[in-house]
């Protein structure tokens, strides 16, 4: 972004990035228009950071349907394991093995 200044003006632009590359903070100041531009850039960066945070959180949180299906899947696996163990026990009993 090209920034030009008049004589004896100073501009300062700083941007902070997270490790994944998203903007976490920004600051812009100028001796001539500092307050307005600082507010503009700060608001824009803050909004972008909030959106990026929401996107990251949404990607990491399973939906309620996913959580429900995982719980049902776990319950079904437990039932299948119990059926298999009972079948194995019955097969052993049929061969004459008795628990001690």
Describe this structure in words.
- With 100 residues, this protein is α+β, with helices and mostly antiparallel strands.
- It is built from 2 helices and 2 strands.
- The protein has helices spanning 34-60, 64-94, and strands at residues 11-17, 23-30.
- A two-stranded antiparallel ribbon has the order 1-2.
- It is rod-shaped.
- The relative contact order is 0.08.
Number of H- or I-type helical stretches: 2
Largest sheet: 2 strands, antiparallel
What is the C-alpha radius of gyration, as a whole number of Å?
Answer: 31 Å
Distance between the termini: 81 Å
Task: Please tell me the overall pLDDT.
Answer: 76
Beta-strand content estimate = 15-25%
Largest beta sheet: what is the strand line-up? Answer: 1-2
> How many β-strands, per DSSP?
2
Helix-strand category:
alpha+beta
Shape: rod-shaped
Helix content: 55-70%
Order of helices and strands: EEHH
Q: Extract low-pLDDT stretches.
A: none
Short characterization:
The protein is α+β, with helices and mostly antiparallel strands.
């Amino acid at each position: 972004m090209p920034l030009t200044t008049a004589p004896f003006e100073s501009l300062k632009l700083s941007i902070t990035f997270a490790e994944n590359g998203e903007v976490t903070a920004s600051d812009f100041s100028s001796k001539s228009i500092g307050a307005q531009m600082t507010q503009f850039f700060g608001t824009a960066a803050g909004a972008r950071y909030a959106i990026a945070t929401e996107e990251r959180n949404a990607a990491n949180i399973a939906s309620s349907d996913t959580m429900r299906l995982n719980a049902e899947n776990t319950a079904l696996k437990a039932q299948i394991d119990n059926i298999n163990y009972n079948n194995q026990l019955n097969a052993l009993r049929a061969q004459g093995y008795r628990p001690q």
